[in-house]
Amino acid sequence: xxxxxKIIKYKxxxxxxxxxxxxxxxxxxxxxxxxxxxxxxxxxxxxQFRSPTNLLSYGKNEAMLAKCGNYFIExxxxxxxxxxxxxSAIGAFFYPDIVKGFFEADLSIxxxxxxxxxxxxNIEPLMxxxxxxxxxxLENPAIADENIVVNKLKELLxxxxxxxxxxxxxxxxxxxxxxxxxxxxxxxxxxxYSDLTIDEFAKLCNCSVATFKRKFTELYRExxxxxxxxxxxxxxxxxxxIKSKPVTDIAYECGFxxxxxxxxxxxxHFGKTPSQYxxx
Length: 280
Description:
The structure is a single chain. The protein has eleven helices and ten strands. By secondary structure, the chain is of the alpha+beta class. It has two domains: 2-176, Jelly Rolls (Sandwich), CATH 2.60.120; 184-279, Homeodomain-like (Arc Repressor Mutant, subunit A), CATH 1.10.10. α2 (125-139) packs antiparallel against α3 (146-163) and α6 crosses α7. The N and C termini lie far apart (45 Å). Residues 105-112 have low confidence and may be disordered.
């Protein structure tokens, strides 16, 4: 649940934002609106950011840069008690039609083509000072006229370009709007032990549910639900051989949403509960 939200817009689009929310969510889609790139600095709490092929953890005073794409924001840990905790962050959003007008030089793709989808950004003193200035503007929106907003967006791009060792600011900005290319199999295998639903898998693969199921069946000769379930159960049966590993940890590590779901699926497939299987 969002407790506080402050936004600064430019040309009708959200460019800077401060949000405070309860951290009792499981998984929510990215809050992007278009094919923008996003910078996010965490001021309180922690979360995980799931891209099609990566799952990165971010905590207080850490920052991320995400190119255009489909992502999910998730709880820092399925085992973590989040009741009463809050998550807060300051974000900046870069839109191609706005940002490419900031610099005079041609922004066609140059030698710098940083092949990432989501990365952690180095928070140096210069960046920390910048975050403080944006926080001040969000708290005092009357000061944030168009000139200040434009200059702040430019400043952030210059800082990020330096932190990524780009040959030029033009090359760095261009790289933000080159979608990262994913292999369908790579996306599936990198998320096979998550608790993603079929709908969420399809979103990460940037296709409809029907298209996802068709591609999946063509590739694996099995329906997504059956193939993913069997892979999870096979891994669980292997982990149960480690006597010191709690069944609860195994359930979450193999991507089951709850322990009861894990127990039910395991017994249905193996004819024994996880505990009985371990003893046998």
